[in-house]
Amino acid sequence: MYLDQVKERLKELKLVSSDELVACTYPEITELEKKLKFSLPEAYKEFLLWMGKSAGQVLQGSDCFFEHLPYLKEWAVELLEENHFPNTLPEDAFVFFMHQGYQFSFFRLSEGDDPPTYSYCEGTNQTSFTRSHNRFSAFMATEIELHAKYLTAFAS
Fold first, then answer.
1. Which residues on adjacent β-strands are paired with residue 22?
2. pLDDT tens across 17-48, in order?
């Protein structure tokens, strides 16, 4: 639904075989929501049900899969503290992505089923969080395209 175009693009690019995509189960998502005491946006649940545990080389090097989810917010807070960042994460922030321990992305649970994403990157002199994408689905589309561009450059 929200990620249909992203899924189609991933197929077109042949970046990963279908057996490399490992999904979360509905009960795992329900348990996660109970643990975290909130409901996740529909677009994000769609991601979890598509590649929530593994995606081959796509998103490799990033902590964004099911096993990392309980820790990402804590790690993001630690990064902000280490860098003396002047703002704190919003109360309803859900950190869904961290790359190499120096940057992370989150969405706010109050901003709909395909929420905007925000980011922080160490060493950029940011004084506030950057709205990186207007929708979570756009974040995923960008990540797929970046991975394809990386592979093309690496193969040259």
1. 54
2. 889 999 999 999 999 999 888 899 999 999 99
Give the 3-state secondary structure of residue 100. coil
Mean pLDDT of 90-105: 95
Residue 17: half-sphere exposure toward Cβ, Cα within 13 Å: 2
Q: How many CB atoms lie within 10 A of CB 43?
A: 22
Between the alpha carbon of residue 104 and those of residues 5, 23, 54, 97, 98, the distances in Å are: 24, 22, 18, 5, 4
Are the CB atoms for 53 and 67 separated by under 8 Å?
A: yes
pLDDT band at 152 (very low <50, low <70, confident <90, very high): low
Q: Where are the domains of the chain?
A: 4-155
Beta-strand pair 93-99/103-108: antiparallel
Token pair listed for 61: 């090097």
CATH code for 4-155?
3.40.1580.10
